[in-house]
Amino acid sequence: MYLTLYFFDGDPRSLIAAHERMLAEHYPARTLTLNALVRTQTGVAVVDACPSRDVFEAFAASGEFRDAPTAAGLPEPRIQPLGDVERLHVADAAVST
Predict the structure, then answer these.
(1) Partners of 6 in the beta sheet?
(2) From 40's CA, which of 4, 11, 50, 76 has a CA 20 to 30 Å away?
(3) Of 54, 40, 44, whose CA–CA distance to 2 is shortest?
(4) What is the pLDDT of residues 80-97, one digit of tens each?
(5) pLDDT band at 65 (very low <50, low <70, confident <90, very high)
(6) Mean pLDDT confidence for 32-58
(7) CA angle at residue 85 from 46 to 28, to 5 degrees?
(8) For the chain, how far is it from start to end, CA to CA, in angstroms?
(9) 82 touches 4 (CB < 8 A)
(10) Cα separation of 15 and 2, whole Å?
(11) Mind spelling out the 3-state secondary structure of 62-83?
(12) Residue % of the chain over a pLDDT of 70
């Protein structure tokens, strides 16, 4: 699993609503490996996982990815690839359903 951070600057409430629109219209929950939305001092950040770096690179270069955030009302993200996950633990209580 390969993690990437996407930073979106602006009003967090508007960005959260736009992120929800983008997921609903383009990336339903059943298609996501890991996607966490975090409120930051400058807006929001999304921690997202792809199965591999190759899959991430193909996704990041795709027209679908370039168009989906804008169509949902998100600004262009700053993208920070993080790397391969070596270990992951998530407590049951941390997962919302």
Answers:
(1) 46, 79
(2) 50
(3) 54
(4) 999 999 999 888 887 765
(5) confident
(6) 95
(7) 40
(8) 22
(9) yes
(10) 24
(11) CHHHHHHHHHHCCCCCEEEEEE
(12) 98
Q: What is the pTM of this model?
A: 0.88
Rounding to the nearest 10 degrees, give the CA dihedral for residues 7, 13, 15, 21: 140
The domain 2-87 having CATH identifier 3.30.70.100: the answer here is yes
Pull the structure tokens for residue 95: 């997962």
> Residue 37 in 3-state DSSP?
strand
- Asked whether 71 and 18 are in contact (CB, 8 A), the reply is no
H-helix or E-strand spanning residue 46: strand 43-50
Judged by phi (left if over 0) then psi (alpha if -120 to 50, else beta), residue 73 lies in left
Top-confidence residue, 28 or 80: 80
DSSP state of 29: G
Q: Looking at the DSSP assignment, which residues form a beta bridge with residue 81?
A: 4
Q: Which two tokens stand for residue 78?
A: 């700053």
